[in-house]
Write a structure and sequence with these properties.
About 20% of the residues lie in helices and about 35% in strands. By secondary structure, it is α+β, with helices and mostly antiparallel strands. It has a single domain, classed as Ribbon (Umud Fragment, subunit A), CATH 2.10.109.10. A seven-stranded antiparallel beta sheet has the order 1-2-11-3-4-9-10. It has a four-stranded antiparallel beta sheet with strand order 7-6-5-8, with no helix packed on it. Strand 5 and strand 6 form a beta hairpin.
Length: about 160
């Protein structure tokens, strides 16, 4: 087989593969979004691309993409689920029990605040609490504001910026 025919065959296979994968992702509600800001550092960096699932059911400690401000999506971690009682003090208490936040790189002290979540409300916080605009400021969010649950990071922009600069 000649080189042009092999190249053509590879291009057609590659194009079909991309088409099939894109179709499957759309069918199963999986989309790629870009992270903005440093509120989820060190899990997600500014400019990272990640896959999210629109149809996954959000659970406690899931990283989710939320729509709080029009045309701007935030990446946050779910701390409180519908019906939960949240107490922010020296630590975070959910339904009277201290939660272990293994994913935080530093400890954070909270101003004393008690929140009772309604039947469709979630309490979300960024992992980089010092620089995070989250439920402490804008209050609980609804299920409709959760645009997707984090599946995986597909592109770490910070790494590639340092390599190519």
């Amino acid at each position: 087989m000649s080189k042009p025919k092999r190249l053509h065959k590879r291009l057609v296979r590659g194009g079909l593969t991309i088409l099939v994968l894109t179709s499957l992702m759309c069918y199963y509600g999986i989309f790629c979004v870009s992270a903005r800001g440093s509120s989820m550092f060190p899990v997600v960096f500014d400019g990272d691309y990640m896959l999210i699932s629109e149809i996954a059911t959000p659970k406690r400690f899931d990283v989710v993409v939320v729509d709080v401000v029009k045309e701007f999506l935030f990446c946050k971690r779910i701390i409180g689920l519908p019906g939960d009682s949240i107490l922010l003090s020296d630590q975070i208490y959910v339904n009277g029990e201290v939660i272990r936040e293994y994913y935080l790189s530093t400890l954070y002290e909270y101003t004393h605040k008690a929140i009772l979540l309604g039947p469709n409300e979630y309490f979300v916080l960024g992992d980089n609490r010092t620089y995070s605009f989250d439920s402490r400021m804008f209050g609980p969010i609804t299920r409709e504001q959760i645009k997707g649950v984090f599946i995986c990071r597909v592109w770490r922009s910070r790494f590639f910026r340092s390599v190519f600069q």
